Amino acid sequence: MKNILTTIPKSKFRDWPTCERVLQRCDGLTDLNGNGEWFWLINTKALPKDSGTGAVCYMIYDGLIRGYMDIVDTDISENWRDAHDIGKPRTTKCLVMANWHPITPQPHTGFQGYRYTQLKP
Hints:
- By secondary structure, the chain is mainly beta.
- The protein has one domain (3-117): Archaeosine Trna-guanine Transglycosylase, Chain: A, domain 4.
- The protein contains two helices and six strands; from the N terminus they run E-H-E-E-E-H-E-E.
- A six-stranded mixed beta sheet has the order 2-5-4-3-1-6.
- The radius of gyration is 14 Å and the shape is globular.
């Protein structure tokens, strides 16, 4: 099982503290606003073939790898949109992640989608 690396678009959050606050809330256990537990989703046309439940996903924000999350499930994106009334309808698949683990930031240029990585927790 290979770990992956993905980018959080800077346009989604105004700064790193705001982004990290949201990541920390995605623990998969706590119902923070009455809509169910929070998870972090990565929508993609095709799921990674060499990765999935049990692997981790490192997250890049503003040119730095900031930490990683545990991949806890894979699913069809539309199932999550309906369940939590979020976002536009999608025909994609998604990686479902929880449990933010911060690390000492490491420089890395961003990209779209995901890539496999040799990084390990």
